[in-house]
# Entry
Amino acid sequence: MPAQSALSDAAERAMRSTLLTLSHRKSLGRLATQLPVTRPLVRRFICGETLDEALPTIRNLHEQGMGTTVDVLGESVSVETDARAAAARYVGVLDALAVTELDRNVSLKPTQMGLGIDAALARETIGSIVAKAVETGAFIRIDMEDHTTTDSTLALWRDIRPSAGTGADVGVVIQAALRRSDADIEAIIEAGGRVRLCKGAYKEPASVAFQEKAEVDAAYERQMLRLIRAGNYPALATHDVRLIRRAIEVARAEDIAPDRFEFQMLYGIRRDIQEQLVGAGWRVRTYVPFGSQWYPYFMRRLAERPANVSFILRNLWRERGRG
Ligand code: FDA
# Structure
């Protein structure tokens, strides 16, 4: 590797690591969410603070042929009442999606539902959302957080899946970056569960996760192919054009119909690819986050592409000029 490229790789890695460390600083989050100047900047990735602000975006995505999964932002709650309040917000979202006849599909974080306080509390809070999903025929996706929660999240998923035939289902997420993920995928295929495969957004130690991008990409490709061949309607969550092309190539070569899996991407990222895929007849679902607790989610998006930081800095500089 040329010296300059090795240097910029190292700089990028350091920047990513710093941003992920800062994503856990609650005091910085409180400050950032109070500053009016940050609001227009986060709008690239977060489609509003309230459901009313998010609904037109969701409708607009449907009109363009995309499905949606709604995320009410929040995570790492340390107080039981906050977990219960978050669950109540999801129940309200499912009601609103049903009334407005929009896609009844939501994504939630286990630590937002109290997993960090007590697994029984998370079972109860997510259980209340699953009950509403059964009533409204909705799909719930349990997002995956850092590796310290993987076992408890998978156990939670097994416990709270609604019985078949209720019209509702609960899926999980597997992170290709984790060394354990091939085995987890086999177990979920065996259980007939629905997997969303992503690369993994958290800072993880080498003992549990691949550190090199090439290793993560190779694991993603292997697991993606396993899932589209044998999985139960898997979701391929990536903006990586090479991996997307590879999935399409294999699906075409092996006669795997476009309704056997879907691509998923985040709101505000690679809109061009999302539109192209829909235009070519592939299924795409956009992950639509809203809410006031956007700070950790936003910082992970910056960490994924450090070039986003210069976009933010340029905007802040411009705002300063106006002030
Ligand atoms: P990669 O990071 O290699 O990026 C490929 C290309 O995509 C980049 O070159 C760039 O063009 C574009 N891109 C990616 N991220 C960008 C960004 N932030 N801003 C601008 N451009 C960007 N993770 C997790 O740990 N648990 C979870 O539950 C989920 N859930 C989830 C749902 C959905 C629908 C998606 C798409 C992703 C997640 N993730 C996640 C996040 C995931 O783990 C990962 O961090 C990001 O998707 C970035 O990885 P890519 O696969 O896009 O590849």
The pocket of dihydroflavine-adenine dinucleotide is lined by residues 143-144, 173, 175, 198-202, 237-240, 264-266, 269-270, 287, 301, 304-305, 308 (CB under 6 Å). Residues 46-293 form a domain with the TIM Barrel fold (CATH 3.20.20.220).
